[in-house]
Design goal:
The chain has about 400 residues and is an alpha/beta fold. The protein contains twelve helices and 18 strands.
Length: about 400
């Protein structure tokens, strides 16, 4: 029996009569085609216009047929990404009245700014689902839920408990929640699920998306399409840098190099001010946030300390959601620029902190002053860590502090 591989076929959608790949390939029941965008077969029905993407299980010969087709863009593996979780330390109910994010974490991020509650901002959590106990404890309105995992979430509505720990540190008290289940019961997620959930989140009014998963390879084209779609529609995306302790950014967080709407998170210890030794890092990372011994909830709603870049990413999303509730309401591009250009230095080496430690207070002050800082958010080599604009940025941040 010929071995099949799970791939994503990206193509220009054309009417069946004009396709160069047809017949046995498209009719093969074992291929199990799934439309990533959830659109019909009609031309232009996809959120990306005439571009289409399908998950399929293809033989090597079928892959080659698609690659040779005139309307084929790419045939790539449907990458499997893992949740970035290091440790879980149950606390019982001793911290039942503690706020989440806890005061020490909020202080590190300078997140307590009058008037910033996240009100009116919808935050999408792409993860293993949020249990009833955690939903009740959070108190946020769940605007919509959908399962993209391909597995049954069970009676408690979750595939893993990872999302239950991520959501409480991700969503400000005034924000609505979009609960997208993208993880299977083994704790991994496919790029196709990430892409499908992104189109759903945009359609349901998300302004912030958190995806605490990462992979070792470069991001695929379908992941880039998804983030590009989010960027076009005014949505900020946050993803984990990864937990390998290596000098690299995991995918899809590495898309921060190409798309300003994507943000990679490096995990720090908010008590020492140093990078967590498990966290991946890179000079051009979007910034850092607490990710070691962070207070959250387990699936039963019981306070728990957790570690991993899985938790620095949602805390950065939390910061963005707070700023998006400012008055007057800023654009997502302004919020993204303000957070990155007002980031503080840390005691860790520059290459380990990326842009630096995000500060809601400094970013809010920048927004209130109407300071878009265009030169500092171009993403050019001059504004990269160590470049002249970056050095000027550091001086300005210290003056503002």
């Amino acid at each position: 029996m010929t071995e099949r591989s799970r791939v994503v076929v990206r193509a220009i959608r054309i009417p069946p009569a004009r396709r160069t790949v047809a017949g046995p390939v498209l009719a093969d029941p074992e291929a199990g085609y799934e439309d990533v965008y959830g659109s019909s077969d009609g031309v232009g029905a996809s959120p990306l216009g005439v571009r289409a993407a399908y998950v399929a299980h293809l033989t090597p010969e079928q892959v080659q047929q698609f690659q040779e087709a005139t309307n084929c863009l790419t045939v790539e593996p449907d990458a499997e990404l893992t949740a970035d979780l290091v440790t879980v330390e149950p606390l019982g109910d001793v911290a039942a009245t503690a706020g989440i994010p806890e005061s020490a974490v909020r202080a590190w991020m300078e997140a307590d700014v009058a008037g910033l509650t996240g009100g009116g901002v919808r935050v999408a959590v792409f993860d293993g689902g949020i249990s009833p106990a955690v939903r009740a404890r959070m108190g946020n309105r769940v605007v919509a839920s959908r399962n993209f995992s391909g597995v049954d979430p069970g009676a408690d509505g979750i595939t893993t408990d990872h999302g239950c720990m991520v959501a409480p540190v991700c969503v400000p008290p005034g924000s609505g929640v979009l609960d997208a289940i993208i993880s299977n019961d083994a704790g991994s997620s496919r790029t196709s699920a990430f892409a499908s959930a992104m189109y759903w989140a945009v359609q349901n009014g998300a302004k912030v998306v958190n995806y605490s998963y990462s992979g070792a390879g470069a991001s695929t084209s379908v992941a880039r399409d998804a983030v590009e779609h989010a960027q076009t529609n005014g949505v900020l995306v946050f993803a984990s840098a990864g937990n390998d302790g290596q000098y690299r950014l995991g995918s899809p967080s590495d898309l921060c190099r190409q798309l300003w709407a994507m943000h990679s998170s490096i995990a720090f210890n908010h008590l020492t001010g140093l990078r967590a030794n498990f966290s991946n890092y890179y000079d051009d990372g979007s910034g850092c946030a607490p990710g070691q011994a962070v207070l959250s909830l387990n699936k039963d709603g019981v306070p728990t300390r957790v570690s991993g870049t899985s938790f620095s990413s949602p805390l950065m999303a939390f910061a963005a959601a707070l700023l998006l509730s400012a008055s007057p309401i800023p654009t997502v591009a302004q919020v993204s620029a303000a957070l990155k250009t007002t980031a503080r230095d840390t005691p860790s080496p520059k290459r380990e902190e990326g842009r630096g430690r995000w500060s809601v207070r400094l970013a809010h002050a920048s927004l209130s002053a109407g300071d878009d800082r265009p030169l500092l958010r171009l993403g050019s080599r001059d504004s990269a860590p160590g470049g002249p604009v970056h050095r000027l940025q550091r001086v300005l941040n210290e003056v503002l502090a």
